[in-house]
Design brief:
Blueprint (H helix, E strand, L loop, with lengths): L7 H7 L2 H7 L19 E5 L5 E4 L3 E2 L7 E2 L8 E6 L6 E6 L5 E7 L9 E5 L4 E5 L2
Antiparallel strand pairs: 1-2, 1-9, 3-4, 4-8, 5-6, 6-7, 7-8
Length: about 130
């Protein structure tokens, strides 16, 4: 995967304030407000910052958590997983492997009937959906 490197100023010029806060500063959008939370359109979900492919609609499922949920990335090396000890808890952060943008978190063992028993809880604002033709 090609690595994308930009200065902080370049990211600020490219991204809206909300996109910047989530993708570059590790923020989150409010639950049940994202454009892809309940979307059922078939297609590919790309990184909003760099355009890299991250997820496919075939792995998207309704977890009712308030954010789009996927049970796996389209390819394991499309995302990078990092231990996150912020906010007094231990979680696994999900980042774009191409541009290192924050996407959300992945959780395991929650009992969803998915092939991986994982829930990639991803901010809509970090994604762009490319509908299938």
């Amino acid at each position: 995967m090609t690595k994308v490197t930009k200065s902080d100023q370049e990211w600020r010029e490219q991204l809206s304030p909300m996109e910047y806060a989530v993708l570059r500063e590790g923020g989150t959008e409010r639950a049940f407000t994202g454009e892809y939370t309940d979307t059922e359109t078939e297609g590919i979900y790309n990184c909003r910052a760099c355009g890299a492919e991250l997820f496919r609609s075939t792995t998207k499922f309704h977890s009712h958590c308030g954010w789009p949920s996927f049970y796996a990335p389209s390819e394991d090396d499309n995302v990078r997983l990092i231990e996150d000890r912020s906010h007094g808890m231990v979680r696994t952060e999900v980042r774009c492997a191409s541009c290192d943008s924050h996407l959300g978190h992945v959780f395991e063992g929650e009992g969803y009937a998915t092939p991986t028993d994982q829930r990639y809880c991803i901010n809509s604002v970090s994604l762009t959906l490319q509908p299938q033709d």
